[in-house]
Write a structure and sequence with these properties.
4-stranded mixed sheet, 5 helices, 8-stranded antiparallel sheet, globular, 3 domains
Length: 304
């Protein structure tokens, strides 16, 4: 009888340990799911699409083919909004890729409302980060960095002009490192007028050195701009030729990529003037209006 009782106890012990182990596994599994769920809630999805997590295949399964396809950027047109979805070119090893994710992974979604959308109706959190637009002072950007969403709102009308769905704070580890030679702000390199060819080339040599310095392999490179100002009296007829000569010199002598040099017909000065600028990747050239105290600036066209 004693042996039977001892055997029963020995038999129950492994069974109890098995039950406890299964319970522990389930408990850990539930905790993992909850933790993953909390991580994913940090990213604000649009129609189930999450930047850095949703692929092009999944997008087209969800939304169908886009209205317009521009390669790495596609557009979906709806009655109340337009959605521009940008896809990754690939991981950090691919030129110009800002995020370390596979090719054709969603990296941002820009929503443009077609109907009047009031910021008040969205009941935006009052604690959101607020940034005034550098180029449009009447626009305020309300930014939720944790969820990766940004609302652009007109301060005058209270209307939402743009909603951006961006990578969440939890995904910042996937950002590709920026190279040390990435230009951060516009540089006014030089300004010259009727100078000798030798003097002009000395200026252009320095300009070329800066262009080469701010050339990147794994990130977008800076852009060179040649602003051309005709003289007020209209006596100068060679402004375009001077600008083209400068561009040709940069290309032939210093092997600068022609696509990185843009010539802009900028307006008028007392005498023919050339101004050279180096602009960060993706940034607009200097605002022409601020350069003309006597004349309204007009972007007359690109000569290159």
């Amino acid at each position: 009888m004693l042996n039977l009782m001892i055997g029963a106890r020995i038999g129950i012990r492994p069974f109890t340990m098995l039950v406890f182990r299964n319970y522990l596994i389930k408990l850990i599994g539930c905790l993992v799911v909850l933790m993953m769920g909390q991580c994913f809630t940090h990213a604000k999805p649009w129609r189930g699409i999450v930047p850095l997590h949703t692929t092009r295949v999944a997008v087209e399964q969800q939304l169908g083919p886009p209205s317009m396809d521009h390669g790495d950027t596609v557009v979906y047109e709806y009655q109340d909004e337009r959605a521009s979805i940008e896809y990754s070119k690939g991981p950090c090893s691919v030129e110009f890729s800002p995020w370390n994710v596979p090719r054709d992974t969603v990296i941002s979604i820009w929503i443009t409302p077609k109907s009047y959308l009031k910021a008040a109706d969205l009941k935006l959190d009052k604690n959101l980060k607020k940034v005034r637009d550098e180029h449009r002072p009447q626009v305020i950007h309300y930014i939720n960095e944790e969820e990766g969403i940004e609302y652009s709102v007109s301060e005058e009308s209270g209307l939402v002009g743009l909603i951006k769905y961006l990578p969440a704070a939890a995904d910042q580890a996937l950002r590709c490192p920026k190279p040390p030679n990435l230009l951060s702000e516009t540089i006014g390199v030089a300004q010259y007028s009727n100078i000798t060819l030798a003097a002009e080339r000395r200026i252009l040599n320095r300009f070329a050195q800066l262009i080469i310095r701010y050339t990147s392999i794994n990130y977008a490179s800076s852009q060179a701009y040649i602003f051309v100002y005709d003289d007020e009296d209209g006596r100068s007829r060679d402004s375009s030729m001077r600008a083209e000569r400068a561009k040709t010199y940069l290309i032939n002598t210093h092997r600068i990529n022609p696509n990185r040099i843009t010539i802009l017909k900028a307006g008028y000065r007392k005498k023919l003037t050339i101004k050279l600028y180096l602009v960060p990747p993706g940034a607009a050239p200097p605002h022409l209006g601020s350069l003309f105290p006597k004349h309204n600036a007009n972007l007359c066209g690109t000569l290159a």
